[in-house]
Amino acid sequence: EFDGTLDCVSIAITCAFNRHGTLLAVGCNDGRIVIWDFLTRGIAKVINAHVHPVCSISWSRDGHKLLSAATDNTVSLWSVMTGDCDKIFRFPSPVLKVQFHPRDNARFLVCPMKHAAVFMNVNGTHQTVPLDDDSDLNIVASFDRRGKYIYTGNAKGRILVFTIKKLEIVASFKVTTGTLNTTAIKSIEFARRGDCFLVNSADRIIRVYESGEILACGRAGEPEPIQKLQDLVNK
Asked: One GO CC annotation, please (predicted)?
């Protein structure tokens, strides 16, 4: 059901709710971050964050911090209360996604363009998440709901599951089409409750998997999605 619109100060590119769903952070094409009070539908704060468009936003678990990524090759850490920038992290290419660890506000995941995913600490230390194929740098990545694992997907349709502690592979599988051809992974998103997650792929099908089954299948597993969502009209 349509519930109205929010008149943003510029073109909205990305958005994210805080954990309680009371605040909505919107990243705009002019580099600003607009924070809306979703209960009153009014603007609570505007942060002049980046020079280039904001392409990803993530809230910390306690809602006190925001991470923003932009096509100016930077990731910034913001104080929501003051709007001040606590830290800036620079990367060699535009950053497509940034995500706070679900349980630890000091750690986060970064997905730069044409680069392996990077597991970072706010103090600047980092680890590169291993690749399945060194020639395939079109990587998407996400923490699972509890932050125990990192799931990565590549352009060849392969999804790898790594432990947080040692970045060791504990499970892997390929997303295939009906003809057994692989399809590029575009994004991986976990539900806030339960163990299900979505895989969006280049064949325009959203597949729903259960993380417990993925881990049980181990390496080179062949799990079946529990549901497929597809637009049959505009396929």
From this structure: Set1C/COMPASS complex
| Alpha carbons 79 and 218: distance in angstroms, whole number | 40
One domain for residues 49 and 151 = no
Question: Domain check: are 68 and 97 in the same one?
Answer: yes
* Measured torsion, CA atoms of residues 120, 125, 129, 134, in degrees rounded to the nearest 10: 130
Strand order in the sheet with 42-48: 12-17, 23-28, 32-37, 42-48
- Pairing between strand 205-210 and 42-48? unpaired
Q: Chunked in runs of 10, what are the mean pLDDT values of the chain (235 residues)? A: 67 93 93 90 91 94 95 94 95 93 96 93 94 82 96 93 95 82 89 92 93 94 92 63
User: What CA–CA distance (Å, rounded) separates 121 from 137?
Assistant: 22
Q: Is 184 left (phi over 0), alpha (psi -120 to 50) or beta?
A: beta
